[in-house]
Design brief:
413 residues, alpha/beta, 13 helices
């Protein structure tokens, strides 16, 4: 029996997560399917930022580093994120960007691995910034190491005796395919390798338990499922057993044991605090903390269950209502399941997505041919999925996607 709009309306009425929707600012007439690229604005964020700007910065000025806890924000928010991703106490801190944190983690992992192993192993379809950072670091180290890329199905067999570090993204950014974090970490450790996990597309979206996986290093961003705002600070997690050996390649004053002693030489702070670098961006941290606090109230298992149901609904609707329009589902699932998105390949993916956006159906495009639709269960309803697929059907049947303005390429896709 085919799905109907009434079926999805009934699911919305029964959805236990539905009250969270009112805690976000959502534009009228927009169906937002891109929270896996930039999370929606939490309703509490503007007031929190106004408080930081008007009272803390505007009234209390520099005294707010002490009076309002600015100095401790990185550790405090890091601890909250650590609980979301299953890290141990004192293992996570908010700092810098994902790219910079990849550099920190990889440089540390190569130090710990020692000179006997020379290969950094990653996935061919990994997010490019991770690979770029590896290339840059390897060049800085004089080419003593090699970057090798394997396809997803080649893991864990691709890990060999020369592999120093395995660097993988838990949820693939194009397809949502999940790696089995625990199994792959175990396989790497059995072969004497360390592992860095990129959690950008899984933190706040799928259940993650770093401690149970016996992780080494993890990084992730704050602006996707954590709803921290555009360019929100990222996070890095380092297993406690590695922290004493972590000598930061980027040794900044906020990672110093006594930053306000203004010593002439660097002395690393104890524990995860040494992963901090420069002066933290207080306004961005305040916005991020608001988003993280909201996420700590949400049951992550229930979020993922809803996302998986939304995946199946979209797949069913696409099969029922867009048969014959040559949309190909990208990567059904991996060994660890699938993340909080659905992706389709189409040779005209770019103009089709632009036509959808023009109608208020906001997804995104990933080269060379992927239309990507993110599921953010806190604010995305079921009925919206029907309306999105209906709009796509009309665009395809009327060839509305082929208008000249939809073929024009933009800087951000």
């Amino acid at each position: 029996m085919a799905l109907s709009r009434a079926d999805l309306e009934a699911l919305d009425r029964a959805d236990p997560l539905r009250p969270f929707r009112d805690r976000f600012v959502l534009p009228e007439g927009v169906i937002y399917l891109d929270g896996n690229s930039l999370g929606a604005l939490p309703a509490a964020t503007p007031a929190r930022l106004a408080q930081v700007i008007g009272e803390e910065w505007g009234r209390d000025l520099i005294g707010s580093w002490n009076a309002h806890g600015w100095f401790d924000m990185q550790a405090r928010i890091g601890a909250k994120i650590g609980r979301l991703i299953g890290a141990g106490d004192g293992e996570t801190i908010v700092a810098d960007s994902t790219s910079i944190n990849v550099y920190k983690a990889l440089s540390a992992a190569l130090q710990i691995a020692g000179a006997g192993r020379r290969t950094v192993l990653s996935e061919r379809d990994n997010f490019p910034t991770d690979v770029y950072m590896a290339e840059g670091l390897i060049a800085q180290l004089g080419g003593r190491h090699t970057l090798r890329l394997a396809v997803a199905d080649e893991f864990p067999a691709a890990i060999d005796g020369d592999t120093a570090v395995v660097m993988l993204t838990h949820a693939n950014y194009r397809t949502g395919r999940l790696h089995d974090m625990k199994a792959l970490t175990k396989a790497a450790h059995e072969r004497g390798s360390l592992v860095i996990w990129d959690l950008c597309h899984s933190a706040g979206a799928v259940p993650v338990d770093l401690a149970d996986a016996d992780y080494d290093f993890a990084v992730g961003c704050g602006y996707k499922f954590l709803n921290g705002g555009p360019g929100a600070p990222a996070f890095i997690a380092i297993a406690r057993r590695h922290q004493d050996a972590f000598r930061p390649a980027l040794a900044g004053w906020f990672g110093h044991a006594r930053p306000f002693a203004f010593s002439e030489s660097y002395e690393p702070a104890p524990g995860i605090a040494r992963a901090a670098v420069g002066t933290p961006p207080v306004l961005s941290l305040a916005a991020l903390e608001t988003g993280v606090d909201l996420m700590t109230e949400a049951p992550i298992a229930e979020l993922h269950r809803k996302a998986l149901k939304q995946f199946e609904i979209v797949r069913t609707l696409m099969d029922e209502r867009l048969a014959g329009h040559v949309f190909r589902l990208a990567a059904l699932e991996g060994s660890g399941g699938r993340g909080s998105q659905i992706s389709y390949r189409h040779e005209h993916g770019w103009p089709i997505m632009q036509a959808l956006i023009a109608r208020g159906i906001v997804g995104d495009f990933r080269a060379p041919d992927i239309l990507r639709f993110g599921f953010t269960p806190l604010y995305l309803g079921y009925t919206e999925l029907w309306d999105a697929v209906s709009a796509l059907r009309d665009i395809m049947e009327t060839h509305a996607w082929d208008r000249p303005e939809f073929h024009k390429r933009l800087k951000v896709t």
